[in-house]
Amino acid sequence: MTLLAITREVSPALERCELTHLARRPIDVDRARRQHAAYCALLAELGCEVQRLPAEPDLPDSVFVEDAAVVLDEVAIVARPGAASRRAETTSVAAALAPHRELLYIEAPATLDGGDVLCLARDVFVGLSSRSGEPALAQMRTLLEPRGLRVHGVPLDGCLHLKSAACAVGVGTLLVQPRWVDPRAFAGYECIAVDESEPFAANAVRVRDALIHPEAFPRTRERLEERGVRVLPVAADELAKAEGGVSCCSLLVER
Q1: Total domain count for the chain?
Q2: 217-243 burial code (b ≥16 CB/10 A, e <16)
Q3: pLDDT tens digits, residue range 34-60?
Q4: CATH number at residue 160
Q5: pLDDT tens by residue, 140-192
Q6: Would the pTM count as exceeding 0.85?
Q7: Half-sphere exposure of 54 (CA within 13 A, CB side)
Q8: Which of 37, 251, 78 lies closest to 163, judged by CA?
Q9: Which of 5, 115, 123, 219 measures 20 to 30 Å from 90, CA to CA?
Q10: 202's torsion region: left (phi>0), alpha (psi -120 to 50) or beta?
């Protein structure tokens, strides 16, 4: 079985990104591109076949491909992003996924960002955020529960996406920001809290037995390593100014 990582080059319009919880700051697009290239190189080092979609000059947030779709073992769900400016991102992502998965779609008027969906074995957690709401949760249940998956709604407070507040770091283990999501929402899973001084440290992406995690959060990284997690730090601070995390920059597809 191989692992495909679908990514997209950084848009030259990144500075015009959507922002909800962060103040707008200048973004060095060239530096963001270098950080993204290093991230893609690390995915390749971990054994991924990296598929790099071309940049979209008119879609500022399009580097964050995770928001365009949700990939599961049997199917992929094409999202309908909560920000209208991002909905055109899904077309090329759907085309990239079509050879590998049956495609299902979130239908209007519901909205769903892929960053609000955390898949853990047969559990699918859907963050109830400003981008993803109850109508999308209902559609996810209709699409997935007949396939034997359990779909759970998770209230959020103070963050953009569920994966801003919780990500898988091992089998049955999550990294969480308890200020933004109640760890009790993940009954049956072990939760490791981020260091209090690093509120944005909960976003990570697990690739096989390794965890890609932003280098800006050493105290949280130390907590993870104490639990035996193999952490690979990457520079991601320029992309973070666009309210994106390391999980946002790829869609992982097992084939």
Answers
A1: 1
A2: beebbebbeeeebebbbbbbebbbbbb
A3: 999 999 999 999 999 999 999 999 999
A4: 3.75.10.10
A5: 999 999 999 999 999 999 999 999 999 999 999 999 999 999 999 999 999 99
A6: yes
A7: 3
A8: 251
A9: 123
A10: alpha
Residue listed under structure tokens 């590998």: 100
Q: Identify the domain containing residue 110 by its residue range.
A: 3-254
Q: Are 36 and 63 in contact (CB under 8 A)?
A: yes
**Tokens at 136, concatenated:** 């999308």
Report the catalytic residues: 161, 248
Task: Kindly report the backbone phi and psi dihedral angles of residue 104, in degrees, each rounded to the nearest multiple of 5, phi listed first.
Answer: -115, 160
